[in-house]
Amino acid sequence: MDKFYHLIKKRSMNTPYTDLDLINNAAEHKLELPIPKEEGYAFVRYGLKEGHIDLHHIEVSRNLRGQGIASDLAAKVFDFIQQQNWSYTIFCSFLKTWKNRQDSGQ
Question: Whole-model pTM?
Answer without folding.
Answer: 0.84
